[in-house]
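### Sample
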Amino acid sequence: MTKGLIVPIDLAAKRKAADLTQEKFGELIGFSKYYVLRLEKGKLTTPLQVAVKCVNILGPIEFKDKETGSRYRLTKI
């Protein structure tokens, strides 16, 4: 059973396509540039609240479950 250890797969590409720096994107989601960098590199798992903020700003984002390898696309409904 998964514990929700998800990491974004395409966050950096989506952020760049939106013409946002890591610093500006961090401000929009309420975190530092360093936090965004670590999310993009898969060094941090993504809490659901943060994932939702990212999707609200960038649109659908693909995530990977670190435990199972399963992939998910989170979208706004």
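The beta strands are 6-8, 61-65, 71-74. This sample (Transcriptional regulator, XRE family) is used throughout the tutorial notebook.
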